[in-house]
Design brief:
CATH class of the largest domain: Mainly Beta
Largest sheet: 5 strands, mixed
Number of domains: 5
Distance between the termini: 22 Å
CATH superfamily of the largest domain: Immunoglobulins
Radius of gyration: 41 Å
CATH topology of the largest domain: Immunoglobulin-like
Oligomer: single chain
CATH architecture of the largest domain: Sandwich
Shape: elongated
Strand content: over 45%
Number of helices: 2
Number of strands: 35
Length: 561
């Protein structure tokens, strides 16, 4: 009887081990939720320096529940800031359900017009407290820029008005911020000072201004000494302006202050007229058309020049236009102008058409304007003015080819295209969209940046809207190095079949809309693992039974002896 109980116990252990093995094998497949963003129907818009409110729809595209959900944005290479960490949290999202997450950001003051992607990290758990995560992207558009700090200097006054060589004078002027952003820690340092021009009277050549608010102006003054050897007439002092922009990055700009009426006490005219009356030509103003000058293009340069003398006219004036390294070349005609005469205080204007060298990089390039002229006594004079013209690198994005797959009406198909940056500048914030008989799953598809000389390809999902031939237009939009928005377009054609093409005879049949519930997908049962566990359990039970049985038999024999 005791032997039967032991055997029954061992058989039960074997069955227990086998059932445990099969139970473990049945639960091996994890139940993984899958969270993702629903494509945006409209991209939210904001202006530089303003607020951005984003409402994002997300869904659980799985058969399992998602718990302890957090959604965290990342601001890498995106012009957004926030005062405190922003994390969206939700307790639960069931299978095939969707929800809405809201975020509020601030757009940086220096943000440029364009479409930007925000990366999000989605983290969540299943019902077994196992951790999972996924990534998603949402887009926003900046529609208006803030004008950055624009520092200008005007209202230059000297006390006294006529400056004698070797004498001390006070230089006063206004510094202005014409932009929409505060210029922080503004500092001025005077350059081109020497013993042959001007020197600071108090030994310092630097003025600290502090913060200059938008549209603000401040009057500054500094005491100077004119050199004994200073040139008569008009002279200039270089001013280096430095400040911090809204991103706390240092900005440096070079300005010039023109000082008229320098008098030499060593040289007077025969009638003791001060040399300040000698005629002097200055550039009073200039403009370009268009305002934004692109390398490889042609523009018109108009400049206004003035005879600053209050008493003397000038005659036989020759004006010569040139540039360093042939950055600007004459588009047509001559690079010289002839002016027969120019009365005291008179202003004249001239316009010239110039070609911009195609391989110029984005920066300012000088235009040299040389004046040769005479006064009424046939005394010859020469002067030179330099105007710095900003140039933007040449941008040329080319769509090489477009291919759209055959599809069915109102069903997605693939659109592939490749493109080349044949310009001299990097293409920034490149996006793709479609127009015409096709619609895109996302109205704006963000691609990113493309370096000069590079090529790449991209795929997007599009949907044909009619049966037969569908004509669409691929639109690539990007920003050049100046922030200007540029579009490149290319037409493509595809064919779409009716939705009923693969289901003949079913068009007129109607019935109840029955949706079968999706069953959780389980991994196939691993038979060999179950068999292995069962055999192992049996062998363990066999050896345990043998040991116990041997001990019982030995004890019984010992009792009989």
């Amino acid at each position: 009887m005791k032997m039967k109980k032991i055997v029954s116990l061992l058989v039960g252990l074997v069955m227990l081990f086998s059932n445990l093995a099969f139970a473990m094998e049945g639960d091996y497949t994890p139940k993984i939720p899958k969270l993702a963003f629903i494509p945006q129907e409209e991209i939210p818009e904001a202006v530089a320096g303003g607020s951005l409110n984003m409402v994002i729809d997300y869904k659980n595209d799985s058969n399992y529940n998602a718990r302890n959900i957090t959604i965290t944005p990342s601001f890498e290479d995106v012009p957004l800031v926030y005062e405190r960490p922003i994390v969206y949290e939700a307790k639960n999202l069931g299978s095939k359900k969707q929800n809405t997450a809201s975020f509020s950001f601030k757009v940086k003051d220096e943000a440029k017009i364009g479409v930007y992607p925000i990366k999000f990290k989605l983290e969540y758990k299943n019902n077994s407290d196992e951790n999972y995560s996924s990534d998603a992207i949402a887009y926003f558009r900046v529609t208006q820029e803030k004008v950055q700090s624009i520092i200008t200097i005007n209202n230059v006054v000297t006390e006294p008005e006529n400056i004698a060589a070797g004498e001390k004078f006070n230089l006063k002027f206004n510094i202005n911020n014409m932009g929409d952003v505060t210029a922080n820690n503004v500092m001025l340092s005077f350059s081109s000072l020497s013993t042959d021009t001007f020197m600071p009277a108090n030994g310092t050549d630097t003025l600290y201004v502090g913060n200059l608010e938008p549209k603000a102006s401040r009057t500054l003054s500094i005491s100077m000494i004119a050199s004994e050897n200073i040139k008569k007439g008009s002279n200039s002092i270089g001013v280096n302006v430095s400040y911090l922009n809204s991103s706390r990055e240092e900005v440096k700009e070079d300005k010039n202050i023109y000082i008229l009426g320098v008098v030499s006490d060593k040289e007077q005219t025969n009638d003791d007229e001060p040399t300040s009356s000698k005629p002097k030509i200055i550039i009073e103003s200039y403009n370009t058309s268009p305002n934004s000058i692109v390398a490889g293009n042609t523009f018109s340069f108009t400049f206004n020049f003035k005879n600053t003398s209050k008493e003397k006219a000038i005659k036989n004036m020759k004006i010569t236009i040139s540039s360093d390294e042939e950055a600007f070349m004459i588009a047509n005609g001559s690079n010289t102008f002839y002016i027969e005469s120019l009365e005291p205080q008179a202003v004249e204007s001239r316009t010239i058409s110039l070609n911009v060298k195609q391989d110029l990089t984005s920066k300012s390039y000088p235009i040299n304007i040389d004046f040769d002229y005479e006064d009424a006594s046939n005394t010859a004079y020469q002067s030179k003015e330099i105007i710095n013209i900003p140039v933007v690198e040449y941008s040329n994005l080319v769509i090489n080819s477009v291919y759209v797959g055959e599809g069915m009406v109102n069903n997605e198909t693939n659109l592939s295209f490749d493109y080349i940056n044949m310009g001299k500048a990097k293409v920034s914030n490149l996006t793709a969209s479609v127009e015409g008989d096709y619609t895109s799953t996302q109205s704006i598809n963000y691609i990113g940046n493309l370096e000069a000389g590079s090529t790449d390809y991209y795929d997007i999902q599009v949907t044909p809207t009619k049966e037969g031939e569908n004509v669409g237009t691929l639109v690539l939009t990007f920003e050049d190095s100046s922030g200007k928005k540029i579009e490149v377009r290319k037409e493509f054609t595809g064919v779409a079949m009716s939705e009923s093409f693969f289901d003949p005879g079913m068009d007129n049949m109607e019935g109840p809309d029955i949706t079968m519930p999706e069953e959780p997908i389980e991994e196939p049962f691993n038979v060999w693992m179950g068999v292995g566990v069962g055999i192992g359990s049996f062998l363990i039970a066999f050896f345990v039974t043998k040991i116990i049985t041997t001990k019982i038999i030995r004890k019984k024999l010992e009792d009989e002896i």
